[in-house]
Amino acid sequence: MNTFKFGDMCKCPECKKEFFVSNKDAWAYKKDHKGRRLIFCTYGCMRSWEKSVK
What is the pTM of this model? Predict the structure, then answer.
């Protein structure tokens, strides 16, 4: 029996919310940081994280 994978559960590094992403490569709110890809739940979380890192 085959199983199909329709996406992944991710955890936002900023707000720690868990959310579903169907395609991590096509997701709009992502950043590469120190060799890791970070996936954010919203644009606001991504911008907040960017401000705290700099």
Answer: 0.85
